[in-house]
From TrEMBL:
Residues 1-23 form the signal peptide. SUPFAM superfamilies: Cupredoxins (SSF49503). The keyword Signal applies. This is Laccase.
Length: 641
């Protein structure tokens, strides 16, 4: 099935400039396991400083030689800065190699004071921070030491994996899962910088704990003195694998609790033996008056959009996902699942009456995406900013409620990427339509498994990949190329450096039914896509062209498909590989809300060394052997993504 054809327009080539190797201007502050010397890389030209900023941002120093500092975060190493094109590998810093080892195990934890069985990374939840500088090469060895028989794999969310599709960590696409007792080394280069997270891409494992933050230091559009990483998530007291059964019966599982950096106080019943309130608590961060703090917000949720604010403080937004943007001021921000925002907060609160302030986080909408949350029902208090490090008091409550605006992505007028790009207008007959719907398999969609239950569809068909036969195997990595089963939903993009456009459509009638108007955070692997339109409660009509946002549109790796509406995205075919696009609501993705782009098929395996082909095959052979006797083989299975 070739549902869409790439289309194009000549891409304006970026001049390839070369840079001599330079030392890293900063050393990240913590936990670097290894720093084993420079990355071999050839470079040809003399400068990669980009275009000057708009005159309104007059404090920026764009001169050659300017070095990254607290007062000039826009600079980097004197040769590169905030305006350097980070999607051109010849432009980015040489970097060093950073090694990490992530061991996945089962364990019991009580991050909010309620004991649950989860899966942990290096014995902890969330997993350790992976941190380095722009241009560094990361070598991350993932070891499967689970006792529940699950395979695993690791995806580095938002990392573009330019030329390294095989390191994308998507089980059933770019690899067989890592079998119990085995390990796999992921090697990739950080061409972008900013804030992100890694998570398992095996079934629902990330909901059950296999997650951690990624911080890549680089230029910033706003100055700051210090930084903190804040991981926001909803939290379940039941295994996601158990909850999935309900999802396939049309009962969306609701989270029990929430966590900020893996902590909260869940109001549990002390007669319940799992209730150990002493182990719950609030995450504290300390502010020193007069300083500016960069807070790296990461939404690792499974089900809900969250609204975030800090009592007594406004802030400036400096980046959306891995894309630095023109700064804008606000006092509250919505972060969808998988999204990140980097915000700069000045420690300038009025501290006469109080020195402690609540960090608040609250669910925006209740499924099915219609009813606003009853403001008094959910306790917004999630963490504490302290101007007095020795204080242990809870702050006085200021606001449990905030105007949550529309509970949608931040308005496009505010999110303006620093590195400006214009998108050629989409030809109106060349858009791929991906119809999103929630159906029983017998009603117009293809059943992927013989089990009963409801499934999500994308492009009129539910996604399912067999972990034993990943996309690469069908493409011929282990023998002859074979035709894909329909449930693999391959969309071929074979033309090089072309713009491709897609409508993800959630407002249409099929078999007398319309899709549930629920918001979905759509995530694409291997690219930052351009958001050309994001429309709520309206129908996409091919005959009546709409006004697209083409002039430096929002560009990111995760954007919300508004309930009852549609999303139009574009990207350039600059990165050969098999790349998933899926809903980041974990239960939806597991229920088939995904498809894959096969981008420049003939170039995908050219990226592999002989050793990599052998390792791929060995891992698959081991997985196939183990899977024969795995009890999870029968019964409800998820899409594999
Ligand atoms: C993974 O482990 C969970 C228990 O944690 C189990 O319910 C599920 O069936 C396992 N799935 C696979 C595919 O091994
Ligand atoms: C599944 O749904 C049923 C029916 O609503 C409910 O009673 C049960 O508690 C749910 N199971 C879980 C694990 O949430
Ligand atoms: C995280 O994303 C979910 C789903 O989009 C959203 O409901 C939630 O509000 C987000 N959390 C934060 C803190 O923004
Ligand atoms: C935040 O911004 C609003 C609107 O500009 C302003 O009314 C308010 O005083 C500001 N609050 C703080 C703490 O600076
Ligand atoms: C900081 O908090 C400690 C502990 O509550 C208190 O003893 C001290 O007076 C506070 N200092 C200031 C400057 O408020
Ligand atoms: C299929 O769709 C029809 C018409 O909407 C509906 O009556 C029927 O219940 C559906 N079947 C299943 C199995 O959901
Ligand atoms: C998907 O379903 C819609 C609505 O029934 C239909 O209009 C469209 O042609 C279908 N698309 C494909 C690719 O089958
Ligand atoms: C679908 O689009 C129509 C306009 O064409 C709109 O009236 C309707 O409210 C939309 N449906 C939903 C569920 O938002
Ligand atoms: Cu979804």
């Amino acid at each position: 099935m070739r549902v869409a054809r790439g289309f194009l327009w000549m891409l304006v080539g970026t001049a390839s400039l070369s840079v001599p190797a330079v030392a890293n201007p900063i050393a990240p502050n913590i936990n670097i396991n290894a720093n084993t010397g420079p990355v071999p890389q050839s470079s040809k030209c003399s400068s990669s400083l980009g275009t000057a900023p708009t005159p309104s941002e007059s404090n920026y120093d764009t001169s050659a030689g300017c070095l990254h500092s607290k007062t000039h975060r826009e600079c980097w190493d004197g040769k590169r800065n905030l305006w350097t094109d980070y999607e051109d590998l010849s432009m980015i810093p040489k970097g060093v190699v950073r090694k990490y080892e992530l061991t996945i195990t089962n364990g019991e934890i009580a991050p909010d004071g309620y004991t649950v069985g989860k899966m942990l990374v290096n014995g902890q939840y969330p997993g350790p921070k992976i941190e380095g500088n722009w241009g560094d090469t990361f070598e991350i060895t993932v070891k499967n030491r689970l006792s529940n028989g699950n395979g695993t794999s690791m995806h580095f969310h938002g990392i573009q994996q330019l030329g390294t599709n095989r390191m994308d960590g998507a089980s059933g696409i770019t690899q067989c899962p890592i079998p119990v007792g085995k390990s796999m080394k992921y090697v990739w280069r950080a061409n972008q910088y900013g804030t992100s997270w890694y998570h398992s891409h095996f079934s629902l494992q990330y909901t059950d704990g296999v997650v951690g933050p990624i911080v890549i230091h680089g230029p910033s559009s706003v100055n700051y003195d210090e930084e903190y990483t804040l991981m926001l998530t909803d939290w379940f007291h039941t295994s996601a694998f158990t909850l999935f059964y309900n999802e396939t019966r049309g009962i969306p599982p609701l989270p029990n609790s929430k966590l900020l950096n893996g902590k909260w106080k869940f109001p549990c019943d002390s007669s319940d033996p799992r209730c150990v309130s002493s182990r719950g608590g609030f995450t504290d961060i300390v502010f020193e008056k007069g300083k500016k703090y960069r807070l790296r917000l990461i939404n690792m949720s499974t089900t809900y959009m969250q609204t975030f604010w800090i009592d007594g403080h406004n802030f400036t937004v400096a980046a959306a996902d891995f894309v630095p943007i023109e700064p804008f001021r606000t006092d509250v921000i919505n972060v969808a699942i998988g999204q990140r925002y980097d915000i700069i907060v000045s420690a300038d609160a009025n501290t006469r009456e109080q020195t402690d302030f609540w960090i608040n986080m609250k669910t925006c909408l209740i499924p099915p995406g219609m009813a606003p949350v009853d403001c008094s029902a959910e306790d917004a208090r999630t963490g504490i900013v302290r101007y007095n490090a020795s204080s242990t008091k809870n702050p006085p409550t200021i606001s449990n409620c905030r105007d949550q605006k529309t509970c949608r992505d931040e308005p496009k007028e505010l999110v303006k990427p620093i590195i400006k790009r214009r998108v050629p207008p989409p030809p109106h007959n060349m858009l791929g339509d991906f119809y999103v719907s929630w159906d029983s398999p017998s009603n117009g969609s293809t059943a992927s498994q013989d089990d009963v239950g409801w499934r999500w569809n994308m492009a009129n068909s539910t996604f399912f990949v067999d972990w034993e036969e990943p996309t690469y195997s069908y493409l011929g990595l282990e023998g002859n190329e074979r035709p894909f089963p329909q449930s693999y939903q391959p969309v071929y993009l074979n033309e090089k450096d072309k713009w491709v456009y897609f409508v993800i459509n959630a407002n249409f009638t099929r078999m007398g039914r319309v899709p549930i108007p629920l918001d979905h955070p759509i995530h694409l692997h291997g690219h930052d896509f351009y958001v050309l339109a994001q429309v709520t409660h309206d129908q996409f009509d091919r005959a009546t062209p709409i006004e697209y946002n083409l002039d430096n549109p929002v560009r990111r790796d995760t954007a919300v498909l508004p309930g009852g509406g549609f999303l139009v995205i574009a990207f350039e075919t600059k990165n050969p590989g098999a790349w998933l696009i899926h809903c980041h609501l974990a239960f939806h993705s597991s229920a088939g809300f995904a498809l894959q782009f096969i981008e420049r098929e003939s170039e995908i395996f050219e990226q592999f060394s002989g050793k990599e082909v052998r390792l791929y095959h060995e891992q698959c052979e081991q997985w196939r052997e183990d899977w024969k006797t795995n009890p999870a083989r029968t019964g409800i299975r998820d899409s594999g993504a």
